[in-house]
Amino acid sequence: MEATAGAACRAVVGRDLLIAARRRGDVLTTFFFFVIVVSLFPLGVGPQPDMLREIAPGVVWVAALLAAMLSLARMFGADYADGSLEQLVLTPQPLTLLVLSKVLAHWLTTGLPLVLVAPLLGLQFGLPADALATLLVSLLIGTPALSLIGAVGAALTLGVRGGGALTAVLVLPLYVPVLVFGAGAVSASATGMGAAGQVSLLGAMTLAALVFAPWATAMALRISLE
Amino acid sequence: MSNMNWFKYSSPQTFYPLAGRMAPWFIGIAVVLGLLGLYLALFAAPTDFQQGDAYRIIFIHVPAAWMSMFIYVVMAFWAGIGLAFNTRLSSMMAHALAPTGALMTFIALWTGAFWGRPTWGTWWVWDARLTSELILLFLYLGYLSLVAAIDEPRRADKASAVLALVGAINVPIIYFSVQWWNTLHQGSSISVTRAPSMAGIMLAGMLVMVFAFWAYSIAAALMRVRILILERERNAAWVRDSKK
Amino acid sequence: MLQVRQIECVRGNRCLFRDLSFRLEANQALRVGGENGSGKTSLLRMVAGLSPVESGEILWKAGRIAASGEDYRRDLVFLGHANGLKDDLTPIENLRHALALAGVSATDAALRSALSEQGLDGVADLTVKLLSQGQKRRVALARLGFSGGKPLWVLDEPFAALDAASVRRAETVVLAHLRSGGMVLFTTHQEVELAGAQVQALELGAR
């Protein structure tokens, strides 16, 4: 039975990645959104290098949050509409593992690209090298938490009116700790203080999300299919 | 024995009249304690050396803030019971508590602002407590929005229960992270909610107001749950028979 | 082996059915009929375990399905109104994936021959997006060819959008399953011939 659970999970990840590869547009729009939002801030607040350097951690992190949120509808939305979600829930494997696989696939296509481009954006804001490294690490650890926590919100609002905005209202307050420690870590690095504490806390939160979120998401999916 | 009595009242039909009988008592308690508390707050408590008379607003601010957090926990508790045991009344109780909790949060935020204004000269300060209250307000609004958006009542009950429980678990984490954020960015935290050192009479006044708010919240929740019961059970025989 | 006892279904304010009971044993099929909105789909979803059973109980092999969880799902195939197919994948990919989820391994050749049996040779490598409604339904039905090991088939309008020849093909698959000890619970608006099989009928909304 272990073998088939693993096979089922691999099938889920593989399928979602294959679909993402065929619908590259979806993946790219989230990515472009992130880049554009970050670039809007200097236009809004002015180009002084000192100020930009100071707001950079927050700006990049908030943009990552918003990009993650925009992409949440895609996590289960299409599956809910075409009946694949029903089939997933009726699979004789633990739904929690299957949910984890879906979240993984989602993160690979939405979170990971952000992580990879963020240092470039940080460079545009004049962040020093240390801070860029911390930015990469903090987003690498933090974006999975965003996908995991977001999955709960996405699952609760399937097929409900108000869609994206409603999911945002539900999920953004829950994102606050990740934002605080993620941006805080980069700020600390930028001002020469150690970021190890914040990064560990971020890691702890991602681990906690890894343990609890799939279970809550599975429950929410079943509720949405009733 | 007491178990049987409890389950008797877990049906909407039997709880409805019970709530109707209890609510007026709690309103009465709330009014009495409220008047007493206001007297203590406005007249009996001495003028503060540093903050003058403006500080008196904490007699509303602090009880409201405490209630806002307490109600969220109680709401999450009832929502969780409704989810675990599939009882409609528990979910209705959670729905009934949410607006009152949101109101308390709103009052805490406004009174916090009014307190900050004479003391610090600004209408809003991003200190740890007020920011956490703001996020708590968002959590309440999220719950209310989700319930409003889902048409199927049972699905709304269960989905909002999951949300309330996830929120409840996150509240300490959010509070902790906001505290940390505040100290990081403001060094020695300037807190608008640092109360003047409490004279005994001030503490008494605060406690009286807390109980007044508590009694009000219970009364409001009971009255609201009666309305919810009538709405949800409107096709049940006992509702149709007793059109009062 | 499938026992439904006194279940009721309430949608919105209407009670669709109450006190409904039936049994389904090996080699038996149950055809659920009724007008639109009489609760046929709701009934099938309750049996599949998608919708909760608020009063009454549904038992599979004498155990409540809510408690059996994975074990029950292992014995079950459910085909809903929606096909459960991803538009951006080909029929072969969809079928392979569905079987992987169900824990059935099949060679590519086996997949192709199953699709071929459904008359889908030419389109096996096109994305599902490009197929007609009937063709999509046939891709979904192709899964049944590999589901002999799952005794209980719950099919909601399996013949919807199918032409006469495809309906005959689907009937053959269902008959074969019944003959080998399986059971089928289905709804349909069409005239269906299941010659030689024990088919009970249940009409909803008749009260």
Short description:
The complex is a heterotrimer of chains A (226), B (244) and C (207). Chain A is mostly helical and 226 residues long. Chain A has helices spanning 2-22, 24-45, 49-70, 73-82, 84-89, 95-124, 129-156, 163-190, 196-224.
Structural class from helices and strands of chain C?
A: alpha/beta
List the strand order in the largest sheet of chain C. 6-7-8-3-9
Cα-based radius of gyration of chain B, to the nearest Å? 20 Å
**CA-to-CA gap between the ends of chain C?**
27 Å
What is the largest interface, and how many residues per chain? A-C, 28 and 30 residues
Our count of helices of chain C gives 7
The CATH topology of chain C is given as Rossmann fold
From the N-terminal CA to the C-terminal CA of chain B, the straight-line distance is 33 Å
Tell me roughly what share of residues is in helical segments of chain C: 25-40%
Order of helices and strands of chain C: EEEHEEHHEHHHEHEE
Strand content of chain C: 25-35%
The parts of chain C where pLDDT drops under 50 for at least 5 residues are: none
For the report, how would you describe the main beta sheet of chain C? 5 strands, parallel
- For the record, the count of structural domains of chain C works out to 1
Written overview of the protein:
The complex is a heterotrimer of chains A (226), B (244) and C (207). Chain A is mostly helical and 226 residues long. Helices cover 87% and strands 0% of the residues of chain A. Chain A has one domain. Chain A has helices at residues 2-22, 24-45, 49-70, 73-82, 84-89, 95-124, 129-156, 163-190, 196-224. The model of chain A has no long low-confidence stretch (mean pLDDT 93). Chain B has one domain. Chain B is built from 8 helices and no strands. Chain C is an alpha/beta fold. In chain C, 32% of the residues lie in helices and 26% in strands. In chain C, a hairpin with a 2-residue loop joins β4 and β5 (63-64). The mean pLDDT of chain C is 89. The chains are: A mainly alpha (226), B mainly alpha (244), C alpha/beta (207).
